[in-house]
Structure formats: C-alpha cells, structure tokens
User: Which sequence fits this backbone?
C-alpha cells in the first residue's frame, strides 16, 4: 500500500508550494476565526501589523491547537500589543548588519564565509525576527546586480563557504535557485553552500523533485540549517521532507531561538532535540533572542537560558545539546554562553 505522506509530497508540483505561498493568512481576523479564538480576549496591534504584517502559511496554522491562546506556534506569529512597547536597549538594528554589507545582497561578517540575501521575503513572519527592520529594498539584487556579489566572493580566496539566507532562500523559484547555485559552483575556491531556511518547516511541500535534483547535482557540499523552535512544528509531512533531503546528500542541522512562553522550558527543548534527531536533524544553535525593537516580550535572560542548558546537558548526550549563542556585532563568530 502506498505511503500517504509520500503521495502527498510527490503530488505537489512546483506550482503547489507556490500556491500555498500565494495564499498566506494575512488577516488576524481570519486567523482568529480558524483557531476559534475571541478577538476581544487578546487584541492585536495595528501598529505592529503596519511595520511587520502578519504572514502565516495554512499548513503551519493547521498545527496550532484550536481555542488556545497559549499555543507555542500561535505565539510566534501573533502581532501582540506588546510589540508596541519601547524597551531600553531594543533597537531596529541591534546586529549593525549595514556595517558588513560591502555590495548589495551580501553580508561579510566572519572570516571564510559570506551570506547572500537570496530572497527579500519569507513564507512566514516570525514576530521575533531579527531582520524585521532590515533594508531589503537595497539588498535584493537583480540577476545582473548579482555579478558584483559573485565578483566579491571570487576576489577573496579565503572565502570557502556561502550562506544563503534572506528572507528565505527557498522562497525563490526552483529555476532561480538553480541559477544561483550554478553561479556559485563556478567560483573555484568555494567548497560549501549552507542554506538557512524555515520553509521545510512551514511549507514542507517546498522540497520539490526539481530542488532535490539541483541540490544533489551541484559539486558543492550542501548543508541545510532548518529553523524549528518547538516539536509541535514537526508533523509527518515535515519529517518526510527531511528524509528526502538526507536521501539526496544534504546534511541537516537545526537552529532555534529561545523564546519566552514558546520554548523556554527544559522539557520543550529536550523534546525538540529528541524529535529532530529521530529524523536525522542535528541540533546546532540555540540563539539568545536579539534585542530587536518590538520583540521584547520574547526575551529570556542569560541566567534562565544557562539553567535550561544545564538541564539539557543532564538529560541528553552531548551531540543533542545545541550551542547556546548570542550574536555580537564585530565578533569573529557567534559568542557561546554555555
């Protein structure tokens, strides 16, 4: 008998994931209606929506429990009134990324690797996003403008790895992604391409046959870092997308952000590591939240984070414990806290 999950995935032609991407939930009232929540119970912020609109894929919303304001997935996408709070130390550009932006679409923060903003948009707007104020207008090169980025990489023999980020690099079409990967493969000193994407989590249908072929055929070593914050985000279709990626030679890692009232419990973090490893995904980073304006209600203090790490170390083998890190502008890499 055919595996129903496999059938679901295989039936999703490239147009299918794009249809999902074009039919996102963008109206809080529709989201509340789907989730059977009273709009008067917890109002949303019009100011927050204007600055950072609601975007949520329907497959992701299907995993949110009905009639539960405390659902950890809902909290990640709900434009809460707390986003209007002006907290000391929280700014629109805490990572000072404009200081590391030598050509449009390229960030060069660390030795040996650069980051390309392959897409200016995401499939989902995570309310804690550290790039919610990022200037994508000046960092979304056309194909012709990409030449400057490729030339920059090629001129520095020390650059061996390119990180595709955004936005979300898998939000572009298979054709555009294949072109971009092909251009990078022509740069002799590059050995590795690392793809940072939330799409395998929020729209797993994005892992198409064409994308898999492209990843399998490149001469570059392919690493994909998915972004899962809670084990509830993992359903059968998501985990099958992981299987397809690993079968095509992609090394899978996960990075999470530690978020108040989402995953700031030892039980949640331990369960997440176990669930990921069950599907061949290794925990990689557990990020401290960046102090981005509008995100203070997610913030977790260092002391609490270290206590959670201590509990994870006690319960898990070392390879299932992610590195607790913070990004500090100008440092040589992520700063480990535990």
Assistant:
């Amino acid at each position: 008998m055919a595996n129903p999950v496999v059938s679901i995935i295989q039936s999703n032609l490239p147009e299918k994931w794009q249809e999902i991407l074009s039919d996102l939930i963008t109206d809080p009232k529709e989201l509340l209606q789907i989730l059977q929540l009273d709009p008067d119970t917890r109002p949303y912020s019009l100011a927050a929506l204007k600055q950072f609109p609601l975007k949520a894929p329907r497959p992701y919303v299907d995993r949110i429990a009905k009639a539960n304001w405390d659902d950890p997935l809902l909290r990640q996408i709900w434009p809460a009134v707390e986003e209007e709070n002006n907290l000391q130390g929280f700014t629109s550009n805490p990572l000072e990324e404009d200081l590391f932006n030598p050509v449009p679409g390229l960030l060069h923060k660390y030795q040996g690797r650069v980051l390309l903003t392959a897409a200016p948009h995401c499939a989902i707007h995570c309310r804690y996003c550290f790039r919610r104020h990022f200037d994508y207008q000046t960092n979304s090169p056309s194909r012709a403008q990409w030449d400057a980025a490729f030339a920059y990489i090629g001129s520095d023999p020390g650059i061996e790895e390119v990180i595709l980020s955004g936005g979300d690099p898998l939000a572009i079409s298979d054709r555009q992604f294949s072109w971009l990967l092909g251009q990078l493969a022509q740069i002799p000193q590059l050995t590795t391409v690392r793809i940072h994407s939330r799409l395998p989590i929020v729209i797993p249908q994005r892992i198409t046959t064409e994308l898999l072929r492209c990843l399998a055929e490149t001469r570059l070593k392919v690493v994909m870092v998915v972004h899962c914050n809670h084990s509830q985000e993992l359903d059968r279709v998501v985990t099958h997308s992981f299987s397809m990626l690993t079968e095509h030679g992609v090394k899978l890692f996960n990075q999470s952000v530690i978020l108040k009232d989402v995953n700031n419990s030892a039980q949640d973090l331990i369960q997440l590591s176990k669930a990921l490893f069950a599907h061949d995904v290794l925990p990689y980073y557990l990020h401290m939240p960046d102090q981005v304006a509008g995100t203070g209600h997610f913030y977790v203090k260092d002391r609490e984070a270290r206590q959670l790490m201590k509990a994870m170390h006690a319960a898990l083998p070392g390879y299932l414990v992610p590195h607790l890190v913070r990004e500090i502008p100008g440092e040589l890499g992520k700063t480990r806290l535990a």
